Amino acid sequence: MTVDTHWHVIVPEMTREAVTGTGPHGGGEQPWRPSVRWEGDTQIVELGGRVVRSAIREFVRVDQMLDEADTMMTDHVVVCPWVNLLPNALDSAEAIDVCRLENEGLSNMTLAQPGRLSALGALPMQDPELAAKELPALMKLPGIRGVEMSASVQGVYLGDDRFLPVWEAIEAEGAFVFIHPTTRGFDLAAFNDYYLWNTVGNPMETTVTGAHMIMSGVLERFPGLKVLLSHGGGGLLALRGRLRHSAGFQPQARARLEGSVDESMQRFYYDTVTHDPDLLRQLIDYVGAEHVVVGSDYPFDMGTYRAVAEVRELKLPEAEEGAVLGGNAARLLGIEQ
Q: Which CATH architecture best describes the domain 3-8+80-333?
């Protein structure tokens, strides 16, 4: 069984188009609600005054998504929110309401497609104590296997001590965590040119939060965590030597980390969205095939729609190929094969 672990979706109940009447989720003009429509062959997503055209495949209708999964040779899809719909910018009361609406919608999606879908939900990460309390209820929803988190929350990266209650709760629940960049994490003028906010900025955010979690000792303190980094871990693989070197002499670098950089780096899991077969092979060689899972970054233009084929083209040993294509994900998320 092949499993794609990096697949974004907009829950239909969250869109402006779906809202009628009043009530706790009423009011189609709520700023956190996206509008989604097709104009010819172009999908238009509007949110918070921005118009997004980079979602080039179906974003809302799950039956059509699964038709595309079939063409991609993907048997099981792990859906997660479009990261812009993680309500990190809202106040805690509204954020928990939005999370519950989104999580219920994700759960309903999996129930409508038994055996084909699992889901990762959302937590109000701007309030870590509230997020920790909300996690057990989230994990009781049918089809929910864990949580998607943005690499930073209101500018704070995930190795910060304020998130310790969340990591403690996640380890206790055995929940799977997928970390994805916010998509607009750096206010640098250069990122406005040449699509660099995406090609460089996104993996850079993943790199920063991964390194932050390693050097702050989060992965040592909570060895039971199952954390997946998007986009092949960003630039972590290239920076392992610098992190390792700093830990060998710099007191600030060694302030929290007790073991080696490599031990913590190899505790993470990584998806295959690298767009480079040589880099993907190096990643597998370094962290081990058991720590790499298929990802496509569906439905975005920076995704890959040959994720399964790209793994097969590496000509890995049969056991390693099977692990990457689906065995690892099935084990980590408790998916029946």
A: Alpha-Beta Barrel (3.20)
